[in-house]
What does this fold into?
Amino acid sequence: MRLVFMGTPTFAVPVLAGLHALDGTEVVGVYTAPDRPAGRGRRSQPSPVKDFAGEQGLPVFQPASLRPAEVQAGLEELKPDVIVVAAYGKFLPLPVLELPPLDCLNIHPSLLPRHRGPSPVATTILEGDQITGVTLMLLDQGMDTGPVIAQTKYRLRGDETAQDLTETLFYLGWALLQDSLPRWQAGELRAQPQDDAIATVSRKLERADGLADWSMTADELERRSRAFTLWPGLFTDWNGSGVKLVEVTALDGDGLPGLVAETGDLAAPVAVGTRRGLLGLKTVQLEGKRAVPTGDFLRGAPSFIGAQL
It folds into this structure.
């Protein structure tokens, strides 16, 4: 089976690695995002998928878009039987969708039709879902609206961050793909349409989402901290500087919303009042500094205690 893979971040690498090692499958092309500036020096950095593909000697393509005719012609020359997509981050136009005889298959980290859209994992955590999972689906011209081939469920513990939950779901996605792809090729599986009536759509996160709103409950803010680990994080303003709330915990108790008070807890020595409960601060990061345990931060900034955030 001639296969083209499309993906970009670290989470997509296990899927590509598995496909590359899969008997009967030849990865004839890897499409990933163009190199982009990153880090303090703003040096151009390749995507993790490009790094892995280069190490394996796989041909890499980095078009800014799949819409140009010459890009589509190049893809057609690869003669893929199937295209597998995992967190590629780019729209596949109709000529690309119609190219491979075995269709374009996508790994989506939620149980569709719940949490369509760009932020399914963060939304899963924000909404306190107890069950999530991964979906293998056919791509169409909508946003995560295509028919479902197979799904795997996953029960949340309740302490997952967006980073570790995304990693888990893409590993599950690879296992699901490994089981389903040969059966899909053999015609043993049938894709089922999604029920649009029960669909939900996640929205794209913005930096402003990470600003702590102390009129929320402690539980809500704790979920936001875990949901935003990849970006934008949970943060607050203090004395004109940003303070990232790296690790927090929801505590019982009452306090004025936004008021910092001591707790007597070594792990979370201060907490901030919320609409209901207290948000204990375990690890914080002052703008321009490294993340440190809150106790260490307080030794250098004792006036943080009693601050109104």
